[in-house]
Write a structure and sequence with these properties.
With 319 residues, this protein is α/β, with parallel strands linked by helices. The chain has two domains: 3-208, TIM Barrel (Alpha-Beta Barrel); 211-318, 2,3-Dihydroxybiphenyl 1,2-Dioxygenase, domain 1, CATH 3.10.180.10. The protein is built from twelve helices and 16 strands. It has helices spanning 3-11, 25-35, 49-59, 73-82, 94-103, 114-122, 138-146, 165-169, 185-189, 193-208, 222-236, 274-283; strands spanning 13-17, 39-43, 64-68, 87-89, 107-111, 127-130, 153-156, 177-179, 211-218, 240-242, 246-249, 253-256, 265-271, 288-296, 299-309, 312-318. Strand 14 (288-296) and strand 15 form a beta hairpin. The radius of gyration is 23 Å and the shape is elongated. The two termini are 25 Å apart. Bound molecules: 3-phosphoglyceric acid. 3-phosphoglyceric acid is lined by residues 16, 68-69, 90, 157-160, 178-181.
């Protein structure tokens, strides 16, 4: 997959932004980055779009900036010249698509049904915007459409917010969700950038869904592991689950049969998506040890952080 689209998938969200006055562009981009989402789709719904893109690109070269609501080749060209790294259109516009393909800039045209999708396939495009997502039947429709088009990934947009984001993202054919809920025009106009940062943080937390899975106690051998696990079951009534390499007391306490990683043991943190979590951690200078990664097919299912915290190894697990 194209590197830009891959990055969009790692973010899991594309903030769809309408900027009326280009002076707001840089503070807005700063608010997104501070909230943990250094990506923006600046829509050509206002005259300020082109200048906004240019300003953000020059102030924050690391932020992934694209152009949205691109309805003509002229807009696509202006967006690209201003530094946009991807182009989004609400419908399937052959001219815009052809321009983007010739210019080698990723384009995700809006598709809401099989006919549009087949047009995209004709051009070798396998990531499209599903628009307008909720009004077109939402996840139910998208799941039905995905059946014959297994090669397609989608960026549903339109009517997505904190109430349905996690549900959309739980479907593997969804690369990311687009939406304006955290970057509403009125917040931008009123300069409420701290509020935007807060809403972005909330959205990022929903994407990642970090929570405690279990703690792992390092047992030295099988007998010790079993006796420790049984002690917890005896005291607290947790159910005992004997496994190959460890035993569980309930779901919250694991006792390994050989000393595992971590001076004191390990703490397992589950997440909605390990790949997105790894990308997020790396953006925040937290290293993972990819030698410890486990996969299910192509998708990463677990990995340890490089660091120990408080003597505990930290294991990221897919929910
Ligand atoms: C878009 O252009 O992608 C949509 O208008 C965004 O939809 P939303 O405002 O419902 O998030």
């Amino acid at each position: 997959m194209n590197e830009v689209l891959k990055k969009i998938g790692e973010f899991g969200i594309v903030p769809v932004v309408k900027i009326d006055d280009a002076k707001d562009a840089v503070p807005l981009a700063g608010a997104l980055a501070k909230g943990g989402l250094p990506i923006a789709e600046i829509t050509f719904r206002t005259e300020a779009a082109e200048e906004s893109i240019r300003k953000i690109v020059s102030a924050f070269p690391d932020i992934l900036v694209g152009a949205g609501t691109v309805l003509s080749v002229d807009q696509a060209r202006r967006a690209k010249d201003a530094g946009a790294k991807f182009i989004v259109s609400p419908g399937f516009n052959r001219k815009v698509v052809e321009f983007c393909m010739n210019e080698n800039i990723p384009v995700t045209p809006g598709c809401s049904g099989p006919t549009d999708i087949e047009m995209a396939l004709e051009y070798g495009i396998n990531v499209v915007k599903f628009f307008p997502a909720e009004a077109s039947g939402g996840l139910k429709t998208l799941k039905a459409i995905s059946v014959p088009y297994g090669m397609m990934s989608f960026i549903p947009t339109g009517g997505i917010d904190t109430s349905n984001l996690a549900e959309y993202l739980s479907f593997s054919k969804i690369l990311a969700c687009g939406g304006s809920w955290m970057v509403k025009s009125e917040l931008i106009e009123k300069g409420k950038f701290d509020e935007i940062t807060q809403l972005v943080r909330e959205a990022v937390n929903l994407v990642l869904g970090f929570s405690l899975a279990h703690i792992g106690i390092n047992g030295d051998n099988e007998d010790e592991s079993l006796s420790i696990a049984k002690r917890f079951t005896a005291i607290f009534g947790f159910s005992l689950k004997e496994g190959n390499s460890s035993n569980f007391a309930g779901t919250g306490i694991e006792v390994t049969k050989t000393a595992g990683p971590g001076k004191n043991g390990h703490i397992a943190i589950k997440t909605n998506n390990v790949a997105r979590a790894v990308a997020y951690l790396r953006r925040n200078n937290v290293e993972v040890d990819m030698n410890t990664a486990r996969y299910d097919g192509d998708s990463i299912k677990s990995v340890y952080l490089r660091e120990e915290i408080g003597g505990f190894a930290v294991h990221l697990l897919q929910k």
